[in-house]
Amino acid sequence: MFLARLTIRWRITLGSLLIAALFFGVAALAFRSQVATILASTTETLLKHDAAPVRTEILDGAQKIDEPGKAQLVSVIDPTGTVRRSTLPDDLAARLPELLRLHGEPKNFTTKKDSYLVLAQTVETTGGPWRIVTARDLDASVLLLDRITDALVIGALVLVVGFGAASWLLTGAALRPVNRMRRQASELSRSSTALPLPVGPARDELSALATTLNEFIDQQRMTAARERRLVSDASHELRSPIAVLKAQLELAHLSSGDAWALEAEISAAEHSVARIAAIAADLLELSEVESMPTTASSSWSELSMELGSAVDRARLVGALPGTRVEFAIEPRGHDEDGLVRYPVTVGRFGRILDNLAGNSIAAMPEGGGLRLSLLQEPDRLTLRVVDSGPGLPESFLPIAFDRFSRPDPARANSTGGSGLGLAIVKAIVDDAQGTVALANRAEGGLEAVISIPELSEESGVLPE
């Protein structure tokens, strides 16, 4: 909890200090241990070297043992037990019988004043065994090791503090672009500018963060612009039917004494209310599609069945006498079990079919024809809706999927459409990562082509 309340800079610095303390502490201990081992090995070697000249003299039969070198602590005892030469300090010489029992490897020996490393050796001669005792004062080694330890502690502390300071400075330098980016994002949120966050020349994490934030900002701007446009379009589109409804209600009040006129005005008002309700329902559906991407999918068989249902609905609703509504379904062949799925729900796919078929039938003359074809291709499905109607003005095709867009009266105003049907189709297809296109046919009529990709296992979209 304490670390969670700290800033990133403090957390990184404290973590770096802890790691540095552990690293330099272990390194200092390892170095001290290595020095201690070297000192002990050196002392043992010196003990053996101190005894070597004496051993040579004894083996050569010398009658007199030369004086040992300066600082060499040596005691030589002949076979009779007589001390022939000794440079041992008094407190160590007084305990010579104990030292002679330390035969073998060097041993630590402590007196009241000092500590020594002692080595007792035996030299066999024809006259009997000689004993050589060599000693080395350990105080110098201990003092040297203590000074090295002090130097290591001070050096480790300096390195840890320097490492912490470097971490503090480097972390501040690394976070400075983030703070600058945060201030720029704050300024962008308070202003109406459309400038993006600057992306640095280096391809590092900060550049990736700036790119991601710019994409997020663009999406938020597009969402806000879409919402503003939706509110503006809705208010503009609803203004006329609401004004008409108000006038019809006023006329109904004036016609209160005439039953036939009153009924006519109420019927007209009901028509206006139905139109307003249809616009509101379409706006709600469009907003839902754009703001709530689907995580469901449908199989080929489910979509094929929905196509048949949509054809039945098209034949029953609004078709003029003699109008033909046909359909064709062409499966891929090896998907009999319906394992291939597509990122669109049956309900939304039905709305695509109803909107396209409804638009075509509403604009189609008596005796016209409508054909819906569903084709399962290797990696996608393709829906074609072809009618024999008057088609659309070429100037209208680029804006046909905009909200509340309508062509000339020959195709929209006479039907009382809200101008949202194609916008809903486009939103559903975009949500499914597909494409949709409208084109006038050379032989007459309009063709709509929708392509929806097959759902891959890596997409992460779950089946219904």
UniProtKB/TrEMBL annotation:
Its EC number is 2.7.13.3. GO terms for molecular function: ATP binding. It is found in: Cell membrane. Residues 233-456 form the Histidine kinase domain. Residues 172-225 form the HAMP domain. The keyword Chloroplast does not apply. Its main location: membrane. It comes from the Bacteria. It catalyses: ATP + protein L-histidine = ADP + protein N-phospho-L-histidine. InterPro entries: HAMP_dom (IPR003660), HATPase_C_sf (IPR036890), HATPase_dom (IPR003594), His_kinase_dom (IPR005467), HisK_dim/P_dom (IPR003661), HisK_dim/P_sf (IPR036097), Sig_transdc_His_kin-like_C (IPR004358), TCS_sensor_his_kinase (IPR050428). Keywords: ATP-binding, Kinase, Membrane, Nucleotide-binding, Phosphoprotein, Transferase, Transmembrane, Transmembrane helix, Two-component regulatory system. Gene3D superfamilies: 1.10.287.130, 6.10.340.10, Histidine kinase-like ATPase, C-terminal domain (3.30.565.10). The keyword Iron does not apply. The chain crosses the membrane at residues 151-175. It is an enzyme of class 2 (transferase). Pfam families: HAMP, HATPase_c, HisKA. This is histidine kinase. It comes from Leifsonella bigeumensis. The lineage of its organism: Bacteria, Bacillati, Actinomycetota, Actinomycetes, Micrococcales.
